[in-house]
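Example record used in the benchmark description.
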Amino acid sequence: GHFSVGLRVNLVEGSLPQVQNVTPAVTGAVSTKFETKSEVFPMPTADAALGIFKGMPLALTNVGGVDLLVSAAYVPEFSNSGVDVHVPNGSLKFGYGARVGILQESLLIPGISVSYLVRDLPTVNIVGHTGSDSLYANNLSLKTKAWRAVAGKNFLIFGLAVGFGQDKYDASTDIGVHVAARTVPPVPATNAGPIAMSQSLTRTNIFGDLSMNLLVFKLNAEIGQV
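Model output (structure tokens):
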């Protein structure tokens, strides 16, 4: 019956190609360098956990407790510097998972848990345009599956935790281009694509936490590697 809710905002610095600064050639294939511009993208997310089974009592602890996990990711639509981002199926996407308590933390015993979470981002369409010409990535989808094993123990004011796990990312999109008709030289409108692209990655995580419990909040420092 216990529950927790967390809200956070990740700020990611990325580079956007300045498509609006390039005029497509219509008389033959050419090689063009696209300059990029750094942008900061906010990514609000929320997480919730609900305890549905405390576990079976065993000596000084409980074994096999189960929490339900729910997450939500929000990607806003925006238009900036010749690039438009559209979210056709809604800006909010929910994820789900579960956490199993191998051991519940007690006065003498550390807490050990394993969690699994399926967390996707909303599908987006990205269009870069210069005049009536456009370069687009449609149906850009990022699906993730993650598991973690974490052990931790609180010592009055301070707490320690270590963790290990893996993330699997599956990304896909359709790339295409539209070049408007020209009068000089006379060239009809042209469409190329869509070209389907996909990528799958698996990344291993390891991390350690040091926390300090204060009266009204907890200060936490984490170091890790992916």
